[in-house]
Amino acid sequence: MNSNYKGMRAGFATVTTLFFMWGFITVSIDPLVAALRAIFKLSYAEAALTQFAFFMAYFVVSLPAAALIARLGNSKSIIFALGVMVLGCLVVPAATYFDTYALVLVALFIIASGITILQVVANPLAAALGPPERSHFRLTFSQTFNSFGTWLAPRLVSGVILAGGIFAVTHGAEVTEALRAESFRRIDAVFFAIAGALVLLAIFIFVFRKLLDVTKPVDEGQTPSVATALKSPWAIFGACAIFLYVGAEVSIGSLMTNFLAEPDMLNIPLDQAGAMVSYYWGGAMVGRLIGSGLLFLVKQRAPWLLALFALGAVTLCLAVSQLQGSTAAYLALSIGLCNSIMFPVIFTLTLERSTAAPAATSGLLCLAIVGGAILPYFYGRIADASSLHTAYFLPAAAYAIIVVFAIASAKAKTYVHGTATVTAGH
Question: 160-177: buried (b, 16+ CB within 10 Å) or exposed (e) per residue?
Answer without folding.
Answer: bbbbebbbeeeeeeeeee
